[in-house]
Known about the structure:
Distance between the termini: 41 Å
Strand content: 5-15%
Low-confidence stretches: none
Shape: elongated
Mean pLDDT: 86
Order of helices and strands: HHHHHHHHHHEEEEEHEHEHH
Largest sheet: 7 strands, mixed
Oligomer: single chain
Number of helices: 14
Strand order of the largest sheet: 1-2-3-4-5-6-7
Number of domains: 2
Amino acid sequence: MATADGRDAWMLDQLAKSQFFHVKLHKWGLLEVATEIEQTRGESLLWNLSELSIAQDAWDKVIHRGIKPVLVFAHPEVLTSIARSTSYYRMLSMVSQKSMKRIRLNTEPYEDGAKPPAPVVALAIAQRLNEVISRLIVEDEKVDAREFDLWRGMAAGTQAQGSWQNEKGDSAELVVKGIVQLRLRERNQIAEEHNDEVYVLTDGRTIAFSDEPDIAIYSKASDANAEETILAAVEVKGGIDVAGVLERVGAAIKSLHRAKQSNPASTTVLIMQRISITPRAEADLLANHDSVNYWFSVENILEDRDARDQFFALVGI
């Protein structure tokens, strides 16, 4: 039978992964893209089936089921006019980004929303994806619009799993990072993203996810040559090994002390797993309150809305 500590560790690991997948869902804008495509007047587009590599049998099946073709088949005008729509149709075809690269059609820049594909590239992408989508529809005994959502979901899950396997860091850090990212997205506070590590916020501040500290928020620089001032620093220490608690606390104190040296007015926060906050650890934190202003358990941040809101208020998000 699993111990309480074992169950806590399992829960944190699973939450880390689920949170990671949830963040990717929002980062990739899957819901927003699907909604925009659903609102597109596909009937106003010219559907040259042979040019777009759409099988007549597949087209007929979709039409007879009363499904809007634009929800199923890629059209170059959609790919060039709706940001990230390439990802919608690629995932619908259940083709990976890696596979597209092998045929010299790298879709990543278009899926990131950085730029639309050129018309000739959009046509090539549409043709390749429509060939696969047509084959899947023709071979399916019955076409169901809900099944298309499942196709995209399977591809999105596979892509997220690949990203997860490449992710580094412990579960506690990933959970807290995910909570902060979701908060920023839900409140539309992100103006720019740089490799999922640095976000420029709409008010000009910058938030960085790195090491020492794990999360740092900086002020808007007064001019191009001025250095940003650290406003808040967050250290996340995972692990349930009680013997290593004091070492983890000591490392966090040192990291947050450096933030205080840079800006004595900055707010510093330590987040640890509940089992790690022992009486001895609390005594060390109280003795170093000037370096570590506040501390929470990961479980409190996850389970207690008031604690989570307090954390958000402290770091100014």
